Every structure is written in C-alpha cells, then in structure tokens.
From TrEMBL:
<dbReference type="InterPro" id="IPR016064">
    <property type="entry name" value="NAD/diacylglycerol_kinase_sf"/>
</dbReference>
<keyword id="KW-0808">Transferase</keyword>
<dbReference type="GO" id="GO:0005737">
    <property type="term" value="C:cytoplasm"/>
</dbReference>
<dbReference type="Pfam" id="PF00781">
    <property type="entry name" value="DAGK_cat"/>
</dbReference>
<feature type="region of interest" description="Disordered">
    <location>
        <begin position="446"/>
        <end position="465"/>
    </location>
</feature>
<keyword id="KW-0418">Kinase</keyword>
<feature type="domain" description="DAGKc">
    <location>
        <begin position="132"/>
        <end position="271"/>
    </location>
</feature>
<keyword id="KW-0812">Transmembrane</keyword>
<feature type="compositionally biased region" description="Basic and acidic residues">
    <location>
        <begin position="451"/>
        <end position="465"/>
    </location>
</feature>
<dbReference type="GO" id="GO:0046512">
    <property type="term" value="P:sphingosine biosynthetic process"/>
</dbReference>
<protein>
    <submittedName>
        <fullName>Sphingosine kinase</fullName>
    </submittedName>
</protein>
<dbReference type="InterPro" id="IPR001206">
    <property type="entry name" value="Diacylglycerol_kinase_cat_dom"/>
</dbReference>
<keyword id="KW-0472">Membrane</keyword>
<keyword id="KW-1133">Transmembrane helix</keyword>
<dbReference type="GO" id="GO:0016773">
    <property type="term" value="F:phosphotransferase activity, alcohol group as acceptor"/>
</dbReference>
<feature type="transmembrane region" description="Helical">
    <location>
        <begin position="558"/>
        <end position="576"/>
    </location>
</feature>
<dbReference type="InterPro" id="IPR050187">
    <property type="entry name" value="Lipid_Phosphate_FormReg"/>
</dbReference>
Length: 593
C-alpha cells in the first residue's frame, strides 16, 4: 500500500550501509512525504524507512557545515565525518506492531558526496519531521514497581535511545509510596514538555492525579503524559500499543499524542480521585487488590488471585444508577469548586438525603447483588486480559459491565478461553451499558482495611431473610481505581471527555465515533483526518515489515535448499565411496554366509 502523497520530494546521491563499518553501496536516496527510500545504483533493490520509526540520528552540526574551510580542507574537499549521517530506527520483524518480540533497534548510514548535500538533507529532514523535534522530558522511574524491571529498562533501553534523539531529558526515581503524585504536583510546567512514567498503571494513575489536583490544573492537564511499561499490570500501555519498551520509548521521543477521557470519582467529604483506566467492584476488584501479595510472580499474580476469588466468590448488595451518554447539565457559575478543580455536574447526588437521582438517571435492571462490576476506559484490563476491542478512550462515553453470576464454571470459563482474544464480553457472563455518569450506593459502607468502620446502609438487602438465603457478603468490599483502593461509600463517577493527552505511536488511532454497543451491530463511522493519516502510517509500517519478512523467508528457503543439496551430495559421496562399498560387501557376506 502506497500513501497518496508518495512522490519524491528530494533526491540525493550517496553511499548506504546498515552499520558504519559495513560495506557501503552507491545509492539514490529519496525523501518522500512519509518515508525515506534508497535504491542501490544499477539494481532494483530498494529499502524503505517510515519516518514514524526514526528515534535518533548522528549528523554533523549545521553551524560546522556553514563554516568556511581552510585551504587544506578545500583540497581534500570534505572530511568523512562532515558527510556522514546515521539514522537510528525501530524495525519490525512481523506485521504485528503490538508484539513485544517484533520490534528491534537498527540503523542505516548515508555517506553523501558533498557537505552541501548533508545540509540540504538535514534541513529537509527537519521540515518533513523525519527527525524528532527537540523537547524536554522528565522520566519518572519506579525502581520497585512490578518485578523491579524499571531501572534495568531505563538503563538498557530508554536512556540509550534518548541520547540519540536530540531531546533533553532528566530522570527522577520514586522513593516512597505516592511519590509520583508529589512529583507531578510540583513539577515546573515551564521546564518540561512531557512526563514519562517508567512503571505500571499505578504510577501513571498517581501522575494523572498529581496533575489534576494542582491549582493550575487547567494548564497541567494539557501536559502530555507517556508510559513505558515496567510494572506487572501494564494494561494501559498494552491498550495503546506500547507494550514493547522500544515502541513506548519511540512514542515518547516522537511526541504524537491522543486525547484521553478521564473518570472523575467523587465521595462526600473526601478528596476527589481521577482515573484513566478502570474502576471495579466485586470479584475483579478483590482479585486485583489481593494479588498484591503475589507481586513477585509478575503478571501471573492476577491469574492466581482471580482463581482464588472465583472459588471464594462474594456477593455485594447495592444500587447502581446510570446517566445516558453525553447528557449535559448546566453548571452554576457560582460553584464553589469552579477554578480550583474540574467541575462536576451532579455533586448534589452525594448527599445522603437524596434517596434516588432524578430523571434521566435510571436504576440498572433488578440486581439482588453484584458479583462483578467493571467500568473500563481501554481495551485491556491487564497486560494479558484483552477485554474488548470496541472501547475508545477518547469518545466521551463510559462503558459499564456488571453481573450477578455465581456459578464457578460460568465465571472461570470466559477467563480461561477468551482472556487474550478480546471476546470476554461475548460469553453471556456480563451485561453492559453505555453511560455518561454512574452513581453507586453500596448496601454496606466502610473502609475495607478497618472492620470497625463498616456500616449497613440497606438492612433489607444485607440482613433480611432474602439476603441470608442469597449468602450476601456483609463486608463493604473493595472499590478498585486503577489498582488503588478507595473507601466503599456512595460514589459518583462522571466522565471528563478528551481531558488529557497521552503519548502514542504515530500509527495508533481510534475512529472518531465508536462502534455501537447498544444494538449489537457494528456501525462503521467516517474516520477523522488524523485517523486517516495514522491508519496510512500503520499500513506503511506493516508493509515494510511484510517485505522484510518475505525477504527473510526467501533467505531461509534458499538456506534450507542448500542444506538439502549438501545432505544429498554427502550421502551420495558416502554411499558410493570405495571404503563404504568394501564395508557393505563385508557386511553382506557376514550376514548371508
């Protein structure tokens, strides 16, 4: 697939090689709108490099190129270093751009004929965004996250790539719990262009909350945030296609962003919490929080905790009300929170005196209790839990899944069969709805860590005869927000559409309007111009990977053919050699004597 604007914008004569010390070949170098190609002179062998894969370069300084030369330099015309440009890029070995095993670092060197060509190439390369734009990054590294991979990832992958990018970066390690909240809350917005989290979803959650609780949150929310996975969950990085540290670092360097919806979670007389990934209550929340004791197992800890909790299933009583998607309510300009925090529309529903929210709020279909309730903003609920590909994290719509299923086989089967294929919602385990707001009124409130704080709010649903028959769990359960615990009490969740910006690969995109979930039909919507460009870049990178894969397959076929021919020749030489014939004759006489 060729992009629509694939015409050559500039052409150079040079020598090309894939490493500085390898043999170079005379070539014609072409700069196009979205890719760089070079063809070996006198052949039809052409190599292609999408700009979206370039993360660094080595080239002479433009000021040095502009400086006048001495007579001796004029005599030898140009030095080698003044004519050499090296591009560093990420190369994919398969068409699966989300695979961790597919991307690898590579480089290509171009030796130009004249310094003027180098200057012209570098000028055009910056105009066409071949090279990364100079920016200032702050790396927030959690050395204790997950299985302790953050420091190693930073030292072996991130910093070597950053040093070649031309970007300015600083590194700061977290030293205590919720340190990332303090870092994001105090960072000087004039001194940094993006925050990069080197950890899992928990530290990204802390950074989001640190930015949105600042006095200047309106400006802070526009600061791009990126994540390079080094935790045990890594759900968000997996959802945006940056599960590989190489691709995640490439996205941080290139600087492409996507809008991100944020969930605002409010409780009476408690600080507001913001979520970019998920909220859960019930089995999945219990398993997520309880898995912390198995952190040394890495991602496997979620599977272990999930099986244990499915066996020892709990039933939580409560009422859940939902608001239709994208429903707007006028906000009084005299709101006490206006200017100090993002304004919420239905804060009055948190008052205990409000028995039931007014229309258009509605109560979820009659549910005697909940065993699972999940609000998800991304396609993955964990690194290996691919929930559904119908979720868009920037469409302003919340998607809620809920269930009162208690049969063990009915719960465990989808997680065993469909955990990685995106079909978890198609087994009839959970019901779903789209909404613009959620109000949860649990039957029991309290701090999960403090049994003395438990308070029954709805006796009929907790201690009545029907509740006893259903074996209702009388503890409040756990409210899980991006892997962090919050008190179980009346909770209002509202969505802040396209509220922040997240760093993504240049080829990542969502359709502007999501596929319909309510009527069960897929409605293809017209793509935005940005989505069209991203899709074209993705197809270009996949085509280059496909060409490379086909070349490797051809090489493997030739090697196998040569090995087979060598085996035949060897066998012929052995079987028909004089020593073998003598041995065969002796064996024949001995056996048939």
């Amino acid at each position: 697939m060729q992009l629509k604007d694939a015409k050559t914008l500039a052409e150079f004569e040079c020598s090309a090689s894939f490493t500085q010390h390898a043999k170079s070949y005379p070539a014609f170098l072409h700069l196009k709108a979205n890719e760089l190609t070079w063809t070996i002179r006198g052949t039809d062998i052409t190599s292609r490099l999408p700009y979206s894969c370039v993360y660094g370069y080595e080239a002479p300084d433009l000021e040095r190129l502009n400086a006048s030369q001495h007579d001796l330099e004029d005599l030898v015309k140009n030095t080698l270093n003044d004519r050499l440009v090296t591009l560093h890029f990420i190369e994919f070995t398969t068409q699966d751009l989300k695979s961790v095993a597919s991307p690898q670092k590579s480089e290509v060197c171009f030796l130009f004929q004249d310094r003027k060509d180098v200057k012209r190439f570098l000028t055009l390369a910056r105009e066409l965004q071949v090279l990364p734009k100079p920016r200032r990054l702050l790396l927030i590294v959690n050395p204790n996250g997950g299985v302790g991979l953050a420091k190693k990832t930073s030292d072996t992958v991130i910093k070597p790539m950053m040093r070649l990018s031309g970007l300015t970066f600083k590194e700061q390690y977290t030293e205590y719990g919720k340190h990332a909240v303090d870092i994001a809350h105090k960072v000087d917005l004039d001194q940094v262009d993006a925050l990069i989290v080197v950890s899992g979803d928990g530290v990204l959650h802390e950074v989001v909350n640190g930015l949105l609780t600042r006095p200047d949150w309106e400006r802070a929310r526009r600061l791009p945030v990126g994540i390079i996975p080094a935790g045990s969950g890594n759900a968000f990085a997996t959802s945006v296609g940056t599960k590989s540290p190489y691709v995640a670092t490439l996205a941080a360097i290139r600087g492409t962003t996507a809008k991100l919806d944020i969930f605002s979670l409010s409780q009476l007389d408690r600080p507001r919490i913001y979520s970019m990934l998920l909220f859960s209550w019930g089995m999945m929340a219990d398993a997520d929080i309880e898995s912390d004791k198995y952190r040394w197992l890495g991602p496997l800890r979620f599977d272990i905790a999930g099986v244990i909790r499915a066996i020892r299933l709990r039933r939580y009583p409560g009422k859940v009300y939902v608001l239709p998607p994208k429903h707007k309510r006028e906000i009084s300009s005299s709101s006490s929170e206006h200017g100090h925090a993002p304004v919420i529309s239905y804060g009055d529903l948190l008052q205990p005196s409000v028995q039931e929210p007014p229309k258009p709020w509605r109560l979820l279909p009659s549910m005697p209790y909940y065993t699972m309730l999940l609000l998800l903003n991304c396609s993955h609920a964990g690194e290996k839990i691919f929930f559904t590909n119908t979720i868009r994290f920037n469409d302003g719509i919340m998607r809620l899944w809920y269930s009162c299923e208690t049969r063990f086989w009915k719960i465990i089967l989808p997680f065993m069969v469909d955990q990685t294929n995106g079909k978890l919602i198609h087994r009839g385990l959970m019901q779903d709805t789209e909404c613009g707001g959620i109000l949860i009124v649990p039957g029991v409130e309290g701090d999960p860590e403090d049994p003395n704080s438990h308070e029954i709010k709805d006796p009929d649903s907790v201690t009545g005869q029907e509740a006893k028959r259903l074996d209702i769990h009388q503890a409040p359960g756990v409210f899980d927000v991006d892997g962090e615990v919050m008190p179980t009490a009346r909770l209002l969740i509202e969505i802040l559409p396209s509220f922040m910006e997240i760093l993504v690969p240049e080829w990542f995109h969502h359709e502007e309007d999501p596929l319909s979930l309510t009527d069960g039909r897929r409605k293809e919507e017209k793509e935005s111009p940005e989505a069209v460009v991203a899709r074209q870049k993705k197809e270009l990178v996949q085509e280059v990977a496909r060409t490379r894969q086909a070349l490797e397959n051809n090489v493997q076929s030739v090697v196998l053919l040569l090995l087979a021919m060598a085996a035949v020749v060897t066998a012929y030489a052995i079987f028909f050699s004089e020593p073998f014939q003598l041995w065969a004759g002796l064996a024949k006489r001995t056996l048939f004597k």
